[in-house]
Amino acid sequence: MEAESLSLYNKFRSSALLLMQAIYKPSYVFSYQNKLAPTIVVFMMLGLVVSMSQLLIGARLDVDRIAEKQFMHFQQDSIVDYNMGRVIIAPEDTEKFETTKQNVEKTLYLIPINSLFVYPISLVFIAVVLYLCQKVMRGMASMQDAMYITGFAFWPAFFINSVLSVIYVLLSTSSVNADQESFFSSPFNLASWLAQDIPKPMMALADSIDLFNFWALVLIIAGLSQVSKMEVKKTCVLVIALWGVFVAGKYLLVSLFTPEECFTCGAL
Asked: Whole-angstrom Cα distance, residue 257 to residue 253?
């Protein structure tokens, strides 16, 4: 029993070391042989890191302003007044507004909980697609290899992006601008620097132009070409084509919604 506990401890210890080495020594990580335990750990850690960062960012949001924006859209027949840029709710609409505010608060807590499951599942889906596509191109990577590459390619980008995003929000002098539908998006992408009144599909497209996304793509290319024995050029074409399909799908999905119909659509 003690030997089994020690073996389990060593596996998770090696996984933790690999998580750190993935940031500054990815070539060594991709050549690691025992891929099963580290893959499980990194998928769990990715979901946890993103979820915790979203909780911390959500705590800095101006819930009242988000609720006001939602209320103004869904209760357009109500009498609305303004004072110093804030909405004044008529007494007869106070109960409706409180319900809207409660729904916003629930959403802000449900998104991080959702991320605990959605991110690991999404990474498994990406790994499956990556595995099938490289097999079509006669790559030699196994399904376990594809999951391992996906996890450790996204880990450095997600981890550092989450940490920097939280620091950015915590150091800001006021609550995050509630007018940003993409309030859970990274401040390190193109969407963060564009005017918030541009069409939502264009905002979703700009949200994909992210420094950390490109870092993850480079690591996927490096890992897949190393493990699958495919040429780097062929691997580049495959990964960039898959990324292009994802961005196009995201653009089409957001095009189905108006900004007011889904105030979290920018976080997709």
From this structure: 8
Q: What are phi and psi of 204, to 5 degrees?
A: -65, -35
Q: CA–CA separation, 52 vs 44, rounded Å?
A: 12
CA atoms within 13 A on the CB side of 93: 19
Q: Is 42 exposed, middle or buried (0-12, 13-18, 19+ CB in 10 A)?
A: buried
Per DSSP, what are the bridge partners of residue 176?
61
C-alpha span between 256 and 247 (Å, rounded): 15
Other Cβ atoms less than 10 A from the Cβ of 252: the count is 11
* CB of 190 closer than 8 Å to CB of 205: no
Q: What is the DSSP letter of 255?
A: H
Tokens 């850690």 map to which residue? 45
pLDDT in tens, the chain (268 residues): 445 454 555 665 666 777 777 888 887 888 766 565 567 778 888 888 888 888 888 777 777 777 777 776 665 544 454 444 556 666 666 777 778 778 887 887 788 888 888 888 888 999 999 999 999 998 898 898 898 899 889 988 888 888 888 887 777 655 554 444 445 556 677 777 766 567 777 777 777 788 888 999 999 999 999 888 899 999 999 999 999 998 888 878 777 765 444 444 444 3
Q: Which two tokens stand for residue 144?
A: 């376990």
